[in-house]
Structures
1.
Amino acid sequence: MSAETLDHAIRRAADALRSARRVAVLTGAGVSAESGVPTFRASDGLWEGHRIEDVASPDGFRRDPKLVWHFYNGRRANVASVQPNPGHSALAALESRFASNFTLVTQNVDGLHQAAGNRNVLEVHGSLRRTRCTECGAVRDRGLEALAEMPTCALCAGLLRPDIVWFGEMLPARIWEEAVAAVEACDVFLVVGTSAVVQPAAGLIHLARHRADWIGEGEGATVVEVNLTPTVASHAAHIGLYGPSGQTLPRVVDLLRND
Ligand code: APR
């Protein structure tokens, strides 16, 4: 994207936010990329030769729990060593501005939004910090401490799994309902660093856009996509900011601060 077009898009995004009452955000792995957390589909969608779906599905876990824990223990160690980046900080600054009228829906399980200061965070795909027992269902917050190769439950000795929503699993119902309500109520919907291919999260983008088309200009949400490149959801965006979110989001927030 040329500098001039990007400047213009950043100004339009800031204008939309300036007149917004309620803001919702959907984030994906791209917002954490500049912190040093690998995205899922950046290269070939593989991890050590395994398809992401194989290390992130109930079937994959049944077949080879040790391999799946190897993947997640690696992700936990990676996240323990990184910090939020200026993109996360810009989203925290937006929450400060909009207070309770701001909702951040994230597909990320790394906790970096909370580390940056966001409070109203809906983790629709769970959290790397929690384990869940496959026998008794007990959920525990383990932070990012190192876990055993195949950790077991302190209560019943059952095999633990990450408390993460895997391919083919339902999203946590209450959190998902809150996410839908926030998107339905917002005036600006920011979609940051997601390839928008995983449902139902990506459906939020279409929900926001169709509502905007249905309610009419100036009343539905303005959808702003923030990504390195256009995605399959770009046609649903009113404004596209194509560049690293750690650079573009702070520029939007700076324009708002200079009001
Ligand atoms: N700034 C903005 N966007 C970026 C950046 C960056 N610095 N770096 C990468 N991106 C974009 C990529 O262009 C891509 O569109 O982030 C997106 C990352 O896409 P995915 O790797 O597919 O991640 P995500 O959309 O979060 O995946 C959704 O799939 O594997 C499952 O459950 C997992 O939550 C995950 C879900």
Note: The mean pLDDT is 94.
2.
Amino acid sequence: MAEPKTADLMDKIVSLCKRRGFIFQSSEIYGGINGFWDYGPLGVELRKNIRDCWWNDMVRRRDDVVGLESSIIMHPKVWEASGHVGGFTDPMVDCKVSKQRFRADQIFFSAVVVDGKTVGYVTVLESERIAEELQEKAETFKRKKAIQGKLEPVQPRDFTEAKSEEIPLIPSPATGEPGSLTPPRAFNMMFETYVGALRDESAVAYLRPETAQGMFVDFKAILDTGRVKVPFGIAQVGKSFRNEITPRNFIFRSREFEQMEMEYFIADDDDWAKWHRYWIDWCREWLVSVGIPASSLSEYNHPKEKLAFYSKGTTDLMFKYPFGVQELWGIAARGDYDLTQHSKASGQPMEYFDDVKKKRYVPHVIEPAVGVDRILLAILCSAYCEDQAPDEKGKMETRTVLKLHPRIAPIKVAVFPLLKNKPELVKKALEVRDLLRPYMTVFYDEAGAIGRRYRRQDEAGTPFGVTIDFDTLGEKGPELADTVTLRERDTMKQERIKISELVPKLIEKVR
Ligand code: ATP
């Protein structure tokens, strides 16, 4: 089976998403708006299924996690206390000639050193082959300038590490020429807005850049409901907004995206490392349960020196996207920092009274935080396949198939009458559709040759197809009457089964 896990995989996925109605560029008829995406009929179902699976597994099937839906715009003091107003920044660099804007930590450069002497600089943007690309550029640089001597291996650094005297010498990724890049400066990624009729400083508010603060701010309110005892978690799914300097890689980095976050509160003297490990493993297993192969996941432990001062440890679950291994899910042990900050800033105690230990303390927290859109992209990348299948005349052709896990597939089953101009077949097929509909998403399709209808569903990731033919009507004898063919997407195998067996059989497979 050919799996195009190559550089063009992203192009194929983007094109499939557009063609089949998974994802469109937002406001496309006006030329689009960078960093914003719309989910079409299939995308919206896929997204909802991901969210629902997470919610069921994270909240409904557990005794120790409760849900929350907090508002997107909160009191601006929330974001001062959390550190976002002061510190939620990315280092930004402008190219004065091209007017393009970059994130400094995504520009990589190296000195070109020949016989121990720096003769110039080369630049590339972040990619999977930073060192190789820089080396190639350094070789070209030396050749073009006809410099004699031994070229030393490049030493990649990102632009935040550039010394001030180096900045004018580093070529812009946009023009290839030095002299136009500005020094990096902090750019706050929060979207600002105004609340109420006045448009002055006192009315400034922010679209939330993460959902997590809702859980901290409402911690007391949830505690007071009396339903929870440490250790327990508060989970939320919702939109977050970040004015990313360089949104890119399709839906991987957007300016409006959806997060699924959970704050798990533990006792101040509990073993945080044990809980951290527990949640890393939980997240990994959950990703596998929605169809992401364990082999494409890895763990990245943030080095101690790069952690925020309050952080005890952060591990990212990384996914092998076609554009490189990137963060999918971050699992952070944040100590008691967030609750303490809000307690100080609001003057409200954020303590928990442990009636077994008879003591009061501020709980510590483990935070698994993930983006729905990044999971959706990882799922699409894992599911995309091309194989060979016979066409109408038996000739082999390339088939595009999304091998989505039945749990999250947008449509669970497609129902086809063999021919659309035979009213008895159509009537029976509609009956089968109506029989299945209360239990799962069903798509009825009577247009075109049956093989083409199968292909359309293969591309949509529909795991099962049910075909109603003349045998169903009993034309070949009573033993086949009221039976249908059930086709399985991945193997393309077909079996004959009784209509009365369809519901239990399919429910077992899609739940
Ligand atoms: P990155 O380093 O990729 O910018 P981050 O470390 O800032 O991500 P967090 O603040 O930990 O991300 O957010 C938690 C999760 O939210 C991420 O693991 C990711 O899945 C998702 N996420 C963050 N920023 C974006 C974005 N701009 N677009 C889509 N998803 C995002």
Note: The first strand starts at residue 23 and ends at 25.
